[in-house]
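In this supplementary section we document a worked example of the pipeline. Step one takes a protein sequence of length 121 as its only input; no multiple sequence alignment statistics are reported here. Step two produces a three-dimensional model, which step three serialises into structure tokens for compact storage. The input and output of this example are shown verbatim.
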Amino acid sequence: MTVLVQQSTDHEPATDAIPADVPAMTVRVRTVQAADGTVVTVSGAIGRQDAALLSRCLHSQLELAPALLVVDLSRVPSCDHTGRHVLGLARERAEASGTELRLADLGHPVAREWLTDAGLA
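The serialised model returned by step three reads:
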């Protein structure tokens, strides 16, 4: 499975276009310098294979010790138990290191449901 990881700063916004040959999940990381934080935007369903990449991405961002880490899940229609576990571990690590972790754009009813079930919302 191919996963596209795009990285940009607040001065160079990453595009929302996903190439046709990239199935499943896309992770886009955007550093927000003014707020001393990072925004990780995830697109697509998060399955077992994708959860490992998401874990590496989130933990690599946490190693940079931002004051704020925002995970935008507004484009995630579903997330299996491994993905929810990854988000839970990231939340625990953020709390332990003093980073504020926020899950953003939880307006989609399906996303809200699986996040609530996992105790993340």
